Structures are given as C-alpha cells and as structure tokens.
Amino acid sequence: MKILVINPNSTASMTAQIDASARRCAFATTQIEAVNPYGTPASIEGHADEALAVPAMLDLIRDGEARGIDAYVIACFDDPGLAAAREIARGPVIGICQAAVQVATTIATRFSIVTTLPRSVPIIEDLVEAYGVGHRCRNVRAVDMPVLALESDPITAEARLVREIEAARDIDGAEAVVLGCAGMSDLCERLQFRTGVPVIDGVSAAVKLAEGLVGGGYATSKIGAYDYPRVKSGPVLAETA
C-alpha cells in the first residue's frame, strides 16, 4: 500500500524527520512518501497558519489521488483541513491529533497532551472535545517554545518536554502522554525511556491506523458530508446596459 504523509508547513527538514518517523513504524511492504507544499507558513502555529496551508495541502491530495495513493496522513497536530481532505480523497485521511488521542484512550484511561506554544492549547482543547474524549484528557500543557525551536534548540526542547511529561504524570494523574506536534515525533522513544510514561507520537499512530484501515478494505464514505465536492460553473456576470 502507498501512504502519502503530508507536512502542511514548508519546512523540508521537518518533513524529513516526519518521514523517518513514519518509515520506522511502517510495515516493510508499506510505501511511505512524505511531502510538504511550497509557499505555506514555515510552521503551523494558529488558525491563520492553518488556513494558509490548507489549499496547497489539498492540491497534494488531488495529485495523490491521480497517482493511486491508498491513504493520507496530515502531519500537523491541529489536523488542518481534515474534513476538506476527506471530501477529496477516496482512501482514508488520518489527522495525527485524532489518531493519537484514539491510541491514548485505548491504552490508558486518562491522558495529557504536551504541545509547543501556549496559544496552541485552546485549539487542541477544542479538537479533543470535538473528538469526544475531552473527559479523558486531564490537561494540555505547553513547553513554551516555537515549533521550529524543536530543531534549532533540541536540548532545551527535550528538557522541557521531560519536565512537562513528569508533571502530567505526577500532577495531572495522566497514565499516558500525547506529543502535540509532529516535530516531536523523533523524541518519542527517548522521552518514554526518561520518564517511564507511555508517550504517543501522532505520526506513528496515524501511519499504523492508515495501514489498518487500508488493510481492512475501508475507504472514506462518499454518502453525505464527505462526498466529493460538487463541480460548479464559473460566476455569471451581469450584463451592463
């Protein structure tokens, strides 16, 4: 099967890291292709960044459909454009936030999320509520570092992640922690080893869910809300006198 992993921002080094994380967990027979669009924000940190990134991301999915891609992973924890992507795609489209919280609620009764900036906290809280697991999420914590600092200052980023994961365990009573950014995916195993807490990376969770859905023969329903977008004619211009 072929899975297209899309990093909606334009930072190629982050895409390479996401690609490595996806390949590490995928079956040997799964073909992983990780891509990012050009001209989108360098990182997704808020609603405006999401909106600017979605059109180019949808273009990549349209291209994937023409090339016979079986499933898609949107590798941004805000799950930007997820519903729109599902309208365009035949196969499953998995957002890494939705996949991660599904794993969290399967392996633990309570979990917390650790993300990058405080401004992302309400966005993630709303997503968790929308996915129906708000009562299982103890807290959404932030390390107060920009997304790109995960790469430019990895030592500080890891230290702050360890601190917040331990606080989630000791203060929140969380039994598992979800990493709230695709740029954290390569730290998952090390953070779990350092804290003793089950740590869930949305990239690997989404890849494994995509493999399972494709392997089970499941595709996106085209009855109702996720039906293909209707083809519309251009605007009719009013005649002038």
Automatic annotation (TrEMBL):
This is Hydantoin racemase. Belongs to the HyuE racemase family. Coiled coil: none annotated. Its EC number is 5.1.99.5. It is an enzyme of class 5 (isomerase). It comes from the Bacteria. GO terms for molecular function: amino-acid racemase activity; hydantoin racemase activity. It catalyses: a D-5-monosubstituted hydantoin = a L-5-monosubstituted hydantoin; D-5-benzylhydantoin = L-5-benzylhydantoin; D-5-isobutylhydantoin = L-5-isobutylhydantoin.
